[in-house]
């Protein structure tokens, strides 16, 4: 390794400016550089100093130049930039401004917060980090020094180690607010259940305590891990140990505005995840610490599903949804329809929808009891209980009253009503693909098509949304909303409390999901 080269601060500043531009991709290998006066103005140094900086970089093989011709970036300059930087030193006290180091600092902080580097591990070596973050020694060192001052990392042998986020804050944590029922159970649903599971894992990795706070339809709240009585939302108190809040909008309930106002009053970061849609945050909060995230509510999933079928040759598609009163279903339909229209197939998608309330149990439970009288079964069950040990009765009581009387009958009625939509869709013989509202509808559709001896995907391709475990077991192609990335982005926003006050952002942030292709979809075969 060559000996360290000591150069004047001004020359180092000019060399750093050019090396950062090369490592950042603003100047590419083989590209001609601007004139020396122009480069000097950009770097904030004199033309003579910039000429010396170019001479220094030419000796390192980073730039090429001859008398009377412009300087150019040498071949393989990026690798030489990485190799060159650790060999250069400058006198102490040089505080020349830099922008690349701030970007490196933000990327490192994000990786630490997202669990790429945990407090149980050390960061890669400085040399490795230069390659990982495509930077040189000097901006990387500034970024590492900044993170040390902020208390996120500490020097450890020849590298650095992340500091537990709770090491300087006793019991530091975040709170997640979401709807629960009167029995203090979280509201059922694949998205919110998945969100909580991911949050629990990510908070453990970040050494942050997760406090789950449920609120009921009566406007009462409780800590999920305590036996405290239900309290009014207005009595919810903040704590210095709480870094921020995650608020999950699961249903269009009357308390969500009041809860948001309460959280805003704490002046802490609030990441709001809306899985309902149609909520205009700009009319409800002027607080700069509230950021709106969206999952499954926009037209984006519909657009991606439509592009998938366009790419696989399908030109006549059905959209089937029994939840079309919900904003998310309407947005999904808009995304599908607009994407096909933009591709020149304006009338390619036919909707088969119900404008009934989205809660399945409230729509179908009463009808299920009418269509399937269970009085005889109840009488038989009560007689049976007298002749068996209590252990069996205790287990069966819970299953019979809840599973049979609620879930099984309600789902059965739901399937019965869905068959009317499926009959209508199947009556259009030219339709080659069904896009259905979610995996529950897809399971019913798959059963229906198999019962009618319809080849899936030979005659009808089937695609749904949510990517639940059951869609995996049944081999149904489904759209995954990438909740892990959504949750990590929300956590990064809440945990990164060191940044300056944010600019208000009312437009929801949404991360692209991905279609998980399984056995129910295939490229359209030309029908002869």
Task: Summarize, please.
The protein has 528 residues and is α/β, with parallel strands linked by helices.
Report on this model:
The chain has helices at 9-23, 36-43, 47-59, 77-84, 100-113, 126-132, 137-150, 190-205, 256-264, 300-311, 327-342, 360-371, 375-385, 390-426, 439-451, 469-474, 483-495; strands at 5-6, 63-64, 72-73, 88-89, 153-156, 159-162, 173-179, 209-215, 220-223, 231-232, 242-249, 270-274, 290-294, 317-321, 349-353, 433-436, 461-465, 477-480, 505-509, 514-516. 42% of the residues lie in helices and 16% in strands. The termini are far apart. It has 17 helices and 20 strands. It has an eight-stranded mixed beta sheet, sandwiched between helices.
Q: How much helical structure, as a percent, in the residues?
A: 40-55%
Radius of gyration: 30 Å
Structural class: alpha/beta
Q: Which sequence of strands runs across the widest sheet?
A: 10-9-8-7-11-12-13-19
Question: Main β-sheet: number of strands, strand sense, barrel status?
Answer: 8 strands, mixed
Average predicted local confidence, pLDDT:
79
Shape: globular
